[in-house]
Amino acid sequence: MADADIEPGSPVQCATATSGDVITFADSSVAVTPTQTDVAAVQADRKRVIGICLGSADTWNTGAPVKATDGNLAAVFVPLQ
């Protein structure tokens, strides 16, 4: 289930507020001249991505998917690890 609006094609992570839900992945910001700490933070962030949102569960396979809205089912492609 989407814990916020999620556009099709967006990487998703587990929601931080609602167990079992997903939200759009939010990575750390990196300075213009990144430090090793910045690089390590981005690498750790990427490990939170669990899949790609395909859109609303009702429209993901119609050829014209729409965003999954807060509180509604989201179709998520989860690749094999």
User: Poorly predicted ranges (pLDDT <50, ≥5 residues)?
Assistant: none
Strand order of the largest sheet: 2-1-3-4
Work out the strand percent. Answer: 15-25%
Helical run tally = 1
The helix-strand sequence is EEHEE
Shape: elongated
Q: Termini separation (Å)?
A: 22 Å
Which radius of gyration do the C-alpha atoms yield?
14 Å
The beta-strand count equals 4
Determine the fraction of residues in helical runs and give it as a percent range.
10-25%
Content-based structural category: alpha+beta
- Averaged pLDDT, please? 92
Major pleated sheet: 4 strands, antiparallel
Structure description:
There is one protein chain. The chain has a 4-stranded antiparallel beta sheet with strand order 2-1-3-4, with no helix packed on it. It is an alpha+beta fold. It contains 1 helix and 4 strands. It has one helix spanning 36-46, and strands spanning 11-14, 22-24, 49-56, 74-77. The model has no long low-confidence stretch (mean pLDDT 92).
Brief overview:
With 81 residues, this protein is of the alpha+beta class.
Topology overview:
Layout: E1 11-14, E2 22-24, H1 36-46, E3 49-56, E4 74-77
Antiparallel strand pairs: 1-2, 1-3, 3-4
Short key terms for the protein model shown above:
single chain, 81 residues, alpha+beta, 4-stranded antiparallel β-sheet
